[in-house]
Amino acid sequence: MIELKDVSKTLSHREILRHVSLEIKDGESLGLNGPNGSGKTIILKTILGFVRPSSGEVLVNGVPNRAKTLFATAIGFSLGEEALLPNFSATKNLELIVLTTDHELNRQVIREALIRVELNPDDRRPIKFFSLGMKQRVSLAAALINNEPTMIFDEPTNGIDKKGQLFLRELFSELWGQHKTLIITSHDETFLNDVTDRILEVSAGEVTASEE
Amino acid sequence: MVSQSEGFFNPKNLMVLKRNACLFYGRPKFRLLLLIVPILLMVIAGGRSVFYGISITALPKSVPYYWLIQLIMPLLIMGESSRRLFRHDIILSPRVSLNHYLLDNLLIVGSFSLLIWISYGLASFIFLNHALFWSYFGLHLLFINSIYSLLAVLFKPTMVILVGLILSVFNVFSGDISFLNLTMIARFSVPDVWVGLFELCLILGGLLVLVRWAFNRIDYTL
Q1: Nearest Cα to Cα of residue A205 among A30, A35, A27, A12
Q2: What are the residue ranges spanned by the domains of chain A?
Q3: What is the mean pLDDT of residues A153-159?
Q4: Which of A29, A169, B68, B149 is 20 to 30 Å from B54 by CA-CA measure?
């Protein structure tokens, strides 16, 4: 379970999160909807431990963030291309993600993860030469590779074409069927309606329940 | 399967080290061309002129620009490399310890310092006549580059370089900072080497403690 208790974050005298409190139960699929710059990604980064709240507390499985480790454990995440190394191939990016966990490095699993997101595992080009959609798929594979019980996806539809969106819907349905805890941000409410149990609106750093 | 045995030099740690080295050297690869400036100075003006500096008793005092250039150039080449390695490209896993990450950084900075030391040495051949000075200078480079790499995690690299520049110029006139005095042949004295190394150890040790404390308090820009 993930809990945010009255979390606020101020950066350069600007309050980017305002008293955010939310609870995500195990096996739940939560959508965060809101315009660009509303604070969706900061919420994800706060859960992961990359961003330290100015006030309030984040608990992941009952453990406060940064109490024992710098970053939250057992969460797979896809934060788009900014979390990938542009000069490394897709395979190498995934190998590095696996190597920094307790999981064994199994190259077959990496090949399968790349095939699962419809990428060629034999493509040795650095990902800086990939299209936005291809980078997004590498990022998705990064979230899936360790098969963690909780997964976080930031704007997974960015750069993905219509065929890819169908694939994403199938993927999230599959994960939902496996009782994974999912947190997905998007400004596409229709997409979130299809793949999540409930949606929260994020606006100017505040979180409210969706009107629908 | 790749086994992940214990010990620092296991495949997992070596891959992280390789990754960080690629990132560290990947960014300043064009800035490495800046090395041409001090190297040309050493070839044209001679190593002794570049490293001579200015005696503490010399009057009137003027800033020895050649000395200043060779001193500041490694920091300009490193730029924001360490800062990005820690604040942007930090391994996104709780399973890579901060100690391991810091040690990786020190190893990489060590290799960079060695590169600078060898380049300066081959350009100036200063080690032929000033072997002790040259040995200290190698240690100085190692310490100063490590100190800079840690300071750049906490503060903006341009600010750190600017403060370093001001301190160096200040020390030309005051001569209060032993480890900087020792980088000039004109002020180098063997008994002061231990004082200089002690000062550098103290600063580096203090910074390691400070950075470890700060790591839990900073935001990662990823």
Answers
A1: A35
A2: 1-69+183-212
A3: 91
A4: B149
